[in-house]
Amino acid sequence: GNSVTQMEGPVTLSEEAFLTINCTYTATGYPSLFWYVQYPGEGLQLLLKATKADDKGSNKGFEATYRKETTSFHLEKGSVQVSDSAVYFCARDSSYKLIFGSGTRLLVRP
Amino acid sequence: SQTIHQWPATLVQPVGSPLSLECTVEGTSNPNLYWYRQAAGRGLQLLFYSVGIGQISSEVPQNLSASRPQDRQFILSSKKLLLSDSGFYLCAWSVQGLEQYFGPGTRLTVT
pLDDT tens per residue, chain B (111 residues)? Predict the structure, then answer.
């Protein structure tokens, strides 16, 4: 079936470090792919998306490229800030629904 | 612009009591609507979704139910809460089944 797999957290980085959070999806059809961010006590916010192969989604310094050949959509940021500390969810669409990964907690230390 | 509201923001209820959580969306018509539950430190579990008034699809059998009495209103209910119903409940909307936009959530504690 359709699924999304994310790297286990927590990921702990120092401020200004490079971030990668891995995400892979099952290759049923050609889904749209998404990254969401959840700050403590809040709902999820759409961070970026890509709707077809080789598309790059970007927002707030975060980027992710839709790689059909590796069925991946890894999230990257060149220089993280303390304010980026949150839980990040990768997702793919599937018949009116979104299939979410289990989430990766990021902790950025000053 | 579109906005989504959920209330209450927090709720503490005893075991066996009823539950009603409400979600409303403004600024869009005929949205798809979704209810999720998030246990502490865990991922998202899709509970119900609706593609139109009176149309409810259940993803997980449990003691919860959902209703959509109006186009932009989605209600999550229970007749008798269990301890395991505690969690963070999120409502979301989408158009044409693409990206979803989430509300602020309701923190439910069953005691």
Answer: 889 999 999 999 999 999 999 999 999 999 999 999 998 777 899 999 999 998 999 988 688 999 999 999 999 999 999 999 999 999 999 987 689 999 999 999 999
Q: Do A44 and B90 touch (CB under 8 A)?
A: yes
Which candidate, A100, A22, A11, places its Cα nearest to that of A64? A22
How far away is chain A from the Cα of B92, in angstroms, using its nearest Cα? 9
What is the bridge-based pairing of β-strands A33-38 and A44-50? antiparallel
Please choose, from the candidates A103, A34, A48, A44, the residue with its C-alpha nearest in 3D space to the C-alpha of residue B93: A44
- In B46-75, the residues whose Cβ lies within 8 Å of chain A are 46, 49, 51
